[in-house]
Each structure stands twice: as C-alpha cells, then as structure tokens.
Amino acid sequence: xxxxxxxxxxxxxxxxxxxxxxxxGNVLGDHTVRVDRSAWQAAGMDDLHRLVRxxxxxxxxxxxxxxxxxxREVLGEGIGRAIVAARxxxxxxxxxxxxxxxxLELAHVAGVPxxxxxxxxxxxxxxxxxxxxxxxGARLRMLAVFGQPTATTALALRHERFALSxxxxxxxxxxxxxxxxxxxxxxxTRQELINKMWLRQGPDVLHISAHGTAxxxxxxxxTGGRDLVGTDDLVELLRPGKNQLKLVVLSAxxxxxxxxxxxxxxxxxxxxxxxxxxxxxxDLAGWGLPGPGPGGLERGPVRWAGSSLAHVIARELGAxxxxxxxxxxxxxxxxxxxxxxxxxxxxxxxxxxxVARAVPAAGTTPTPDRPAISIAVPTLHGAATATLPLxxxxxxxxxxxxxxxxxxxxxxxxxxxxxxxxxISAGRALxxxxxxxxxxxxxxxxxxxxxxxxxxxxxRHDTFAASAYWAAPPPDGFAGALLGLARSLERxxxxxxxxxxxxxxxxxxxxxxxxxxxxLLADRGLLIVLDGLESLLTPEGRWRDPRWADLIGALTxxxxxxxxxxxxxxxxxxxxxxxxxxHRLLGLDLIESLQLMRELPGLxxxxxxxxxxxxxxxAGPGGDRARCRRILDTTRGIPQLIMQAEAKLAIGVPAGPxxxxxxxxxxxxxxxxxxxxxxxxxxxxxxxxxPPVDPPPTSDPPPHTNTPPYTSTPPQTSPPPYTSTPPxxxxxxxxDEAPPMPAAPQSPAAPPAxxxxxxVAARTGAIAGMQVAPAARSRLERTIRSTAGVAxxxxxxxxxxxxxxxxxxxxxxxxxxxxxxxxxxxxAVPYRAFPGRTFRSVASIxxxxxxxxxxxxxxxxxxxxxxxxLMDLLSAMQAELRATS
Length: 885
Known about the structure:
Blueprint: E1 2-8, E2 15-22, E3 27-34, H1 43-53, H2 60-85, E4 89-94, E5 108-109, E6 112-113, E7 120-125, E8 140-147, H3 157-174, E9 179-185, H4 190-198, E10 205-213, E11 216-220, E12 226-229, H5 231-238, E13 247-252, H6 256-265, H7 306-317, E14 320-324, H8 330-345, H9 351-361, E15 378-382, H10 420-430, E16 438-442, H11 449-460, E17 466-471, H12 481-493, H13 507-524, E18 526-531, H14 546-556, E19 563-568, E20 580-584, H15 590-599, H16 625-635, H17 639-650, H18 754-764, E21 770-772, H19 779-788, E22 796-801, E23 807-811, E24 814-818, E25 826-830, E26 840-842, E27 852-854, E28 860-862, H20 867-884
Parallel strand pairs: 1-4, 4-7, 7-15, 8-9, 8-10, 10-13, 13-14, 16-19, 16-20, 17-18, 18-19
Antiparallel strand pairs: 1-2, 2-3, 5-6, 10-11, 11-12, 14-15, 21-22, 22-23, 23-24, 24-25, 26-27, 27-28
Helix pairs in contact: 3-8, 5-7, 6-15, 8-9, 10-11, 13-14, 16-17, 18-20
C-alpha cells in the first residue's frame, strides 16, 4: 500500500504538522511537531552519529531512547500506528526545506523501529523527479564504480567489488538472470565515468562506492590523486544516462578508521607506548588516518553529502537513489548490497520493498562490524522508479567454452589489498594508445607479483579480444619452457585459430614465426600474462635460453594493440625500455598489512575487536598485541608471509614466537592462497637496512628509463643501474641501542655528510617549510624516525613539511619521504643509491610548472609549488655524490 506523509503548516525547521493520507487522498491521521531543543534526543536530529558515539553501551541504549522519542514527538504515535496497520507499505515522505524530520526510519512504533520491520519503506520524494524511463533491454546492465585514489586511507573496496561480482555470477548461474556487470576500478576518473554513462545510453543500475565528504564523493584524478566531485558535477557526469538510469546506490565506506585504531593499539602509529614516536591517537586524522571511534567509525563529526546528494540526483535524473547517511563499515556495505540486489533480482521486488527487506536482513543485532547505528544509515530518495521492479530478463545457460575467456587463468585471489598506485599506473599502460606494450612487475618472493598480475588481468580482460596465462616451470625445466608456453597458448587461444607449437620445434621455424606473431599482436589486441619468469633468467637478468630473447622481443616490441604482463623476481635486462611500464613491488605498508590481516579469519582474531571500547595502548577484546607485533615484524608486509601466518593459525600452531614456513630452495614463487609457500627472507634487525644494489646491466641493453603515463621532464642521460627502494613499507619503532646498520657489500661506502652538507644548507632553505640543522627534534621528525626505524645515530641535516603536507627528512645517511595522507608510509632513499637514481620533476598538465617529484621508483609524489626547488636540491646532491662514488 502507498501512503503519503506530508509536512504542512511549516513554521521553521523544527515546527510543522504531518498529514498522512493514502494514494486516493483519504486522510489517515495528522500530528503537530514542536521539537523541544532542550531534550537530549534533539541533538540526534542534527548529528545522530555524534550522539551515539558519546553514549555508552555501544550506542544501543542511546538509539533506543532516541527512537522512542522520535516515534512519540516527531513522527507521532497515531501516524506510526496507521503506517504499521497498512503494511506492507511504501510511505512517500514530502518534507521540503527547512523541515528536517531526521532519520524517521528509527522511529519506534510499539517498541520496534520502522526500519527493523522489513516491510515498511520510507521514500523521501524528490520534487519534479517524475520521468519515463526506457525499459530494461535484453540484459540488465549494471555499472559498479569503486573510487580509491592513492592518497586516501585504506578502503576494502576490492573486497566489496569481489563480493558484488560473485553475487552477480551466482544470480546468472543459478537464477538464470541476464545481468551484465561492468566494473570501473583503478582508474575511476571523471572522464571514464562519463564515458561509461554515454556507452549504450547508460546502465540501468549504477553502484558507486568511494570516500564521502561534506562536499561530495572522492574519485581519482588522471594521475591517481584525489578528485572531489561535488553534487552538481556528479549530476552532470551521470546526465548522459538519464533516460536509462533507474537506480543509483551511493556507498561511503570508512574501513581505514578501524585499521588506524588497530595500529595505535599495537603501538605502531604513536600513542602512550611510543611517546617519542609518530602521531598520537588524536593526531591520526591529521595524517589521513581516521582516529579511534565506536564501531570503527571515524572520529570527529562525520559529515558527508549522502542525503543531500541523493536528493539532488533523484530530482535531476529521475532515478531512485539509495544513499548512506554516514560512512559504513565494509562488512555492512557488502551485506546491505547483497540483500538489496537479492531482493531486486531474485525476489523481483520493487526498489522500495527491496530496501525495506534488506535493512533488517543485513543484520539488526549490533556487532563490531555492524554497529547499532547501521540500521539508520540507508536512506532512499526518488520518485516513481522507487516503486517499480527492476527484473532482469531470463537467460538460458551459455555452454560455449569460448565464452569463458579466463578459463586458463588461476582463480582470482579472494583476499587482495593495497597496490592502488601500481594498479592505476599499470592499468593506464594496458589501455589503448598508452604508448606501452608491457607491464613488468618484479620484486622479492612472496611480495604479490602474481596476485597483482591477476588483479590487472581480471579487471582489464574484457577490453581485449582474447586473454591467455602461462606460469614458467621450475629452474630445472627451463629447456622445455618455450614448447610448454606454445602448447599452453594453443590450448587457450585454439578457438580463435592460434597455432604455435610446431613453429618452435626448430630455431629456423621460430625465426620465421616471430614476425607473424608480432604482426598478430600489433593488430588483434591480445592480453598475455607470463608469470614467474625468474626461473628462465640468470641472476644478472639474461635469458638462459637465447630463444627467449627473440620471443620476448616479438611479444613486447610490436607497438600495437596487444599487451603483456610479465612477473619475475629478476628484471630482464632487455626490458629496460621506455615502452615497458616497470614496477618493483615492495611490501605492504602498515595499514595495508593490518587490512589483509583483518580479512583473514585467523589473523583477524589477533587484532582488537572494532568496538571502540578500548583506547590506544590498551588491549581490546580478542587482541593479542605481542603476537600481532611479532607477525608484522617478521612478515615485513610481504603478503605471502602473512598468508603463511594465517595457515599456521588454521592448523593450530600454539601462540609464541612465530617463524615463517621455509620451503625447499629455489622453489618458484607462489601467489596466495593457492600455491606452495616461499622461502622467507633472512631475519633483519629492527632498523632500516639499506637494500643491495641490483646487478648492473652490461653495456648492450639500453638504460632503464621507465616512463610512467604522466607528463614529466626529460630524464637524465645515461643513468647508472637501477637501485631498489626499501623492501617493505613500514618498520617498528627502535630503541636507541639498535644494532649497527649493515652495509651492502655490492655498494660503495656511504659518503661522509660533509660532501652534501653545503649543498643541503645552500638549497634546502629555499624550500618553504624546511628547517636546516634544527636544534631539537620536532614531532614531524620523531614521526618519520619512528615509522621508518631510523637509527638514532643518524644526524639530521634538514627536516620540514612541504606545502602540500608531505614530510621530508634529510639525515647524514638517507632521504626519508613521509606520504601526506598515510602516516605509516615512508619512502627511504639512501645516499649510496643517489648516483643510480633517475629523479624527475613531474607536471600534472603538459607545459605547466611541475607539481610532483619522482624519486626514481616511477611514482609521482605531490610536492606542490616546491617541486622545482626540491628537484634542484636532489640534482645537486646527486651531482656531488656521483663525483665521489
């Protein structure tokens, strides 16, 4: 039954009269509202989140008291009884500004919130939102957008995307529903979004999950940074799909909040246990890390444009909009989306009824993952589309093997966190017209190269004509690897007429075949993934079988439409070319490591429950601080080692000192969780250890000039060999009596500080915010030293915060860069590595002054107006160090 609840006789924001009628206009009741601003519950009308956060008992008692007051004073007992008597009911709420009725879904009727009943939907009507829509076509089209810029707190959006994709696959397989789900992630920019809205006149359902702020939603800029899209801009981006778009789901998540709290609890991000260390709990928000709050929600007033943004979209585009009043946990976002889409596509309910059913189905009993306030989070806005069903057409089974394009690939990893910057950059390299033919992912064993390659392949395969995967054999099988590759590609590409095995049986046949292969790759647009190539390479990066050099040359040198993704512990020297997008993977940073642990059932038990009842330095429910720190210290952010720790917990290894599982030597690298374990790295002292310099290439191959897909100044000529950055993204705080820093035997001795003292003193002063030779250590310096594990003996030459907020520390041994929005990430470049680095200043727009710097790892880091002066400093330091190396 449809009812209309209209605010009339309005006398300001807190005074009006409700009139309840049925669809025919028959009056069912009325209620005069006069909000008593002195009542404690009245604070919940303005900021319910704050009211619950300051209450006790996990917020349940506060919500019960607020809901009872809301039902009596704001909704009215008579109106509440009439609504309940008419259920199942859709209630159209017409309350134009300045009326603010608050979260009416929480109003109690006979002691039960309306939202908990499951058959009462409140829809806030958007004036002028009525519009005819085109019907669903042969297949219902969904577009899911997951926006996560590189400089934001951690979000488990990949986990949410994986769950949504699995749900759609299940519906297609078991319910025989014709649903096409397209995902936009790792490159969710304004341009990509509007392109998707133009495609076939837009989707039927749009699902957006991203950070929410008071100004709108945060998507990604063209360089992977934050792009705040305001209400008006978002409406214009979606307008091309107006005639087709029927439902928009806006989800604002905040998974980084509980992780920052866990970091502080473990003593790794400052707090009472680390008085000289990084930012304290109250300072976490200033570093982009949400501080402690109940249920893992952000501390401080949580303001974002969920309700107002939803209302404007519904009014302008005529679509039903399901939004979140507050940021929600990832677990609740996943559960709510599952229940909403199950109601729509399985039970074939109208949008309003599907939402009403989904709220209690997603969980009404408070838990750490779904705090009591969750029931008040969803809010539905719209017009006629809210009462129409969105039924996907029926579809018969598709049994053509050619329609399973990823059949030759390993299963998509269920747990995957981090790597946002790498995936955005590599994703652009895989795009048409990027100028790249190859993505090369190298790094130590277990760092996640295979998982990263699979994440790219599963996300991009539908932009290629066909895809194929091959994993290299162990080292003793290198002689037959070429034939094995040919047979594997034939099996996967045979439906398209591909043949290769016969051609590689002789060197002459291979040489005759390679030009044909290069032409095919240039014209047809294939995606080829070659995994674990280190077994085919010498330690110096040369191919053990010379035929591979020719094959890789054809595979990567065509400059056409196909793309290759290669993974190896050792970077091939012949791939150090401008058309190869190379990324050396490091360990996950602290927040990402905690996020991965949070997703694993065993390790999540070592972290404190996200109840908000504990504070930094105090053990939370279920937490095991000592073992958590031990695992973080031992695994160093290496995903495979974290997965091994999970495996040990699963088989009941008792608590105590934890050691990684050691496999036989030379075993090929696994990818979690479906391959054998890897050999752990040697134990490292709890201090930053400068990495060894990679073996230099000979004079034959061209120098490495990885040119990322952004505008940069010309690289320096003839750079020395590539030097890796630290092998992990975080370090535990150190006592002053830490063991001496071991020197890498391959590298020259570190130059004395006197060589660069004059350069630093002369040029650093020109950079705003920098202080030369400070007399005392500032909080920023203590933060960087604690986070990076800088030995106390390292003397400070200069320290400061750049105009954009990034922290910079120059000691007598290394440069340390603290990312602005993640206080746990420090990039360290020892001076011994300066001669081998290719520093660049980077411009966001071609021809404009530089705003970013590249420290030699291919990642642009924002430096604002200080970019040119900082580049001048780095170049001068590098010149001095090269002259004495």
